[in-house]
Amino acid sequence: MKKYNVAVVGAGVVGIEMLRPLKQRNFPVNTIKVLARSARDIKVDGDIYSVEPIAADAFNGIDIALFAGTEGEKGAAVTYAAEAVKRGAVVIDNGADFRMDPNVPLVVPEVNGADVKKHKGIIANPNCSTIQMVVALNPIHKKVGIKKIIVTTLQASSGAGKSAVEQLKEETSLIAQGGFENIHVRTTNKSMAQQLAYNCFPHIGSFVEGDYTNEEWKLVHETHKIMHAPKIKISATTVRVPVRTGHSESVYIETAKPITAAQAKNILAKAPGIILVDDVKNNLYPMPKDVEGKDETFVGRVRQDAFNKKGLWLWVVADNLRKGAATNAVQIAECLLSLR
User: Regarding the domain with residue range 4-126+325-338, which homologous superfamily does it belong to in the CATH classification?
Assistant: First the structure.
């Protein structure tokens, strides 16, 4: 089997997480080069990686460049993607900068893996909350069509980066030591806009058009592009919750044709990348504590709207650092190799 030279750009939570599925999924790696702003060594699951300072010529000889990206900011791909492509690499970017570019495929392999064929050097990895939603909904859409989606996301602190996880830890410790008063004032780490421990707040991203946040609009525009279904009506609310890792979503859909909950469960149980956990009699349903470190999208609480035969509720949970970022990027790379 041919082996490939891979660059991972970024040594934060997503960059580190990208190294894991490369190894765990036995990606045919010849060499791995980790690039970041400064040189250092990092240890991941017992393996030591030497991080090199990022520069244009660092992409010489690289076949695939995985950019970890930073949500809400201009990622390194804006500066270095063109340089990597010029040197012969295919860029898979986890940041938001290229997602809606009409010349850049936006790919979730279980949904639109064939779109990688359209790449011109760059392939975009979708937003974490979008990925798990389209994995869960696409099998139903293919069977009966979806006309409307109403989704509320409950997004973990790790979606906002390592500093947000540390803020949650610090706040929780402060509350344990001395009560709830002035927690956000007492916290030294204030990466999030509000206190997160023992709290949740409906504010992820920046408020933009129609008083929705850009995180909420991502669910709209990215879903349209990935599912090739621009007519689906989508409305979203995104909420930050006091969970370390694992995004949860309460999703309501209205289908073009009637479908029962039993039929939907049967479709989901057979779909790639999905694990159905739906045994309410025994209190079994997807929860973020159980999906951390896993690559599948977990679906449960599937039930029909009591007043609409075309209405269906689903509860969707996935590890936002794995399937929502790192693993999906590696799966895109696997799709690339299948075409060679």
Answer: NAD(P)-binding Rossmann-like Domain (3.40.50.720)
Q: What SS3 class is residue 268?
A: helix
Q: Which two tokens stand for residue 149?
A: 């989606």
CATH superfamily of 130-156+200-320: Dihydrodipicolinate Reductase; domain 2 (3.30.360.10)
pLDDT in tens, 224-249: 999 999 999 999 999 999 999 999 99
Provide the 10 A C-beta neighbour count for residue 232: 18
Catalogue the E-assigned strands of 98-170: 122-124, 146-155
Coil vs helix vs strand at 316: strand
Beta strands in 139-224 (DSSP E): 146-155
Contact 36, 43 (CB under 8 A): no
Q: How far is CA 151 from CA 154, 192, 236, in A?
A: 10, 22, 5
| Number of other CB atoms surrounding residue 202 within 10 Å | 13
Task: Give per-residue pLDDT as tens, 19-72.
Answer: 999 999 999 999 999 999 999 999 999 999 999 999 999 999 999 999 998 644
Beta strands 247-255 and 233-240 are unpaired
Catalytic residues: 128, 247
Orientation of helix 261-270 relative to helix 128-144, angle to 10°:
120
Beta strands 64-67 and 47-53, pairing class: unpaired
The answer on pLDDT for 99 being more than 60 is: yes
